[in-house]
Recover the amino acids of this structure.
């Protein structure tokens, strides 16, 4: 694919300073971009990287001046401009998936497929399941009984969607992810952990993306829900009856225990743990590896295991580093006192 | 399905206070139950939730009085009574799985299937493997050479049981779980991590339940063993040669390193880590995110990373919060002392 | 299989003290070895275990004397000698995999298979993918468009290798692992996390082993790389654009965030977390559950969350245990001071 700088500038509503008919054939990072690539300056603080750049064109923040670039397109958000062009190149690379089920896919006669659905080799779509228009199921996926997958979804190879679960429009699910496994619920009766049947479901709202090898358990009764636009990284655990709000970021290896609630635009960073029946507020941030032990208010930032407000936690960490000095002083005082 | 309160009371040996021929058509939580549902009061402390309840019937603890319920059935353990009725409704929802292998399943001629075994589409059962009576393999499972799956087991889609592993009766395994992957064992020889072959197996005793995307490694020699009735949550790692006792609870994202042993009725809470060659006693509790560094005695409760006895850990956390006061005082004393 | 002690001694260049024609039929640990097994003394400190041993032969460190063994073979590294014999027994147990694709495998006409490739039942090999000579794909694996798998690789059931990814010679990948899932990259535009296409790839160099249910994300642009001889345990997360050096040990449940770099011969122990854009030096060790927050120099050992140099962290932990004493003293001083 080839595209002129004039076209690119027009696509991103940017101001081109350079050669209008210059041809761009690829996208790359600032340090590896060649004369055929377009790239971007992510932040003014990386300005030094421009000096040795060889890119065909660089997206620069409006008002920023540089003599080091071959061609520049000025935009308000260079990263976003770059992503929009990257999407064009990415789209071109995508395979043209043939519509209809592969001959080796096993589709129950009662299942309903929309228009232009791709069902890859070895997929299994069970009784009464529905798959919306233009959705792509890569090979070896499983869609359980009466599960509903919306339009324009993308399920990579070996995704499992168990019975009754609902996936909204435009959802992306990566390989190895399991949606709708049984919640972890038992009641101890005469020394035996008796299983509590898990007959609820999982509802994933539109525009959610779920990474690889994630587990999202179905509710005991009712539903586990992932809000619109939320993005879940790899190897995350979401237990039964959890409700996650809209546009959250749930980073890799986070675990959220049963019935907890996460507000909108919250961020749970890597390996953080949320116990059961906790509320995480809107726009709250739980820093990596933190172990939350109580509700986190809207907008709060918490850190540590147990988690404390971030500023307090950082102060305590600084004082923790002073324990040698503290102990030294305490010993001295004890000694002097003993002498007296 | 419809069932009268009289029948329900009889099934759970409860005392009905209400209309004997009242029809129940479903199960629900206390807050969402409708007039057609039965529900339960989990604990007396939730009594306030009864006020606005609309349930057709509520299981109540014997001796508890309430005017807020339409009908009540008194039992010694309302949750357990509820679970027993929930099981009846859950069973009714289960699909009638056809016996015998699906036409797309690949079953080695030497494999032995018991009576009334369901083998879903795309399953692969390898040489010499055995599957017991009434066991259900959902689609796309893999059963390795000479592996043995007991009677009445339930393997959800895309479970892997590697060669030689043994699964006891009544075991449930959720999607994406791998039983019998190689243990992580190497010996460093001239700068290269030389692989130690892992030729042992995994033995899962009866009535174990294993969540989604769990990994249980085969032993180097001998066996990795999961004791009867133990329940393992999603994304748990169990390394080679680990022995887990009976009726344990191993919560999501726990990791147990090589050759460690866990007693009976132990609880390892979410994201806890157990290093290699450690013994966790019977009925011991390792609190979430703890990092155990030494054996944990029977009945002990430990917390923290490194883990300490729970009371001690809590006291230290409280004193940790006092570090600002401590440091303030220490500084003051140093200043005063300096003046002198 | 039967092998004489004379043959074994010759294979490991050891010195036999015992019966040359004694027949060994198996391998076992020191405590469980029978008269037909060979075993080894891992370390002199386990000498006591020799007393009750019943093994047919024990590998002993050169110069070590024991009257408790039936037969002994003296070598410089008993574990390594044992592993070499173990490999012979392990090899004999391996199935003879038939060459060529199983009839149920789905192989795109443009895919290129080397000589003597085994493709198990239900595998899917997509457009333009390549698989090298003697590589074994167990059932139900997926190899994406233009992915390249080298010679002599071993992919256990249900491995996913996404498009364009490259796997070097002699690589072993365990079940449920996903190589090449999209990196977790978004840019927040008007309240929406807009996806950044991930069009890079993953390169796994030769002799790497990757455990079960691991996730390795493809780069946004360019590549995520795993260096030669590195061994990755189960449930590890490796984010986009990460570079891992040669011969590293990455233990179970470790998470490495985007663009971080790990040197050669580094060890990241269980559940450790590495944030984005961090450098871990050659031969550095990150102890279990640590949360790294800054670059780790070559050879450094760090511990804690946040991670500190190990000696410092251990000292601080020791002083942390003294907080009750410290606080007691501080209170006393405050009281006395108040009186004055």
């Amino acid at each position: 694919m080839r595209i002129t700088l004039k076209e690119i500038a027009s696509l991103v509503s940017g101001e081109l300073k350079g050669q209008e008919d210059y041809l761009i054939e690829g996208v790359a990072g600032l340090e590896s971009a060649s004369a055929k690539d377009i790239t971007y300056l992510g932040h003014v603080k990386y300005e030094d990287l421009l000096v040795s750049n060889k890119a065909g064109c660089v997206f620069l923040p409006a008002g920023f001046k540089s003599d080091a670039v071959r061609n520049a397109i000025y935009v308000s958000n260079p990263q976003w401009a770059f992503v929009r062009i990257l999407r064009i190149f990415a789209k071109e690379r995508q395979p043209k998936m043939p519509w209809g089920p592969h001959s080796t896919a096993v589709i129950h006669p009662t299942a309903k497929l929309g228009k232009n659905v791709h069902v890859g080799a070895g997929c299994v779509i069970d009784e009464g399941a529905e798959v919306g228009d233009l959705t792509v199921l890569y090979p070896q996926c499983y869609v359980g009984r009466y599960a509903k997958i919306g339009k324009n979804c993308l399920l990579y190879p070996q995704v499992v969607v168990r019975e009754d679960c609902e996936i909204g429009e435009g959802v992306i699910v990566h390989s190895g992810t399991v949606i709708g496994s049984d919640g972890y619920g038992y009641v101890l009766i005469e020394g035996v952990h008796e299983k509590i049947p898990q007959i609820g479901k999982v509802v994933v709202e539109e525009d959610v993306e779920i990474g690889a090898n994630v587990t999202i358990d179905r509710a005991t009764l009712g539903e586990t829900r992932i809000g619109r636009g939320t993005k879940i990284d790899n190897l995350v655990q979401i237990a039964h009856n959890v409700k996650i709000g809209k546009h959250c970021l749930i980073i890799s290896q986070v675990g959220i225990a049963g019935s907890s609630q996460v507000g909108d635009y919250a961020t749970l960073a890597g390996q953080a743990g949320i116990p059961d029946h906790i509320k995480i507020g809107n726009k709250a941030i739980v820093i990596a590896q933190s172990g939350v032990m109580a509700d986190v208010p809207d907008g709060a930032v918490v850190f540590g295991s147990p988690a404390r407000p971030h500023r307090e936690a950082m102060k305590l960490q600084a004082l923790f580093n002073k324990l040698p000095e503290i102990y030294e002083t305490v010993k001295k005082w004890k000694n002097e006192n003993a002498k007296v």
The longest strand of chain C covers residues 57-61. The radius of gyration of chain C is 26 Å. Chain C touches chain A through 60 residues (CB under 8 Å).
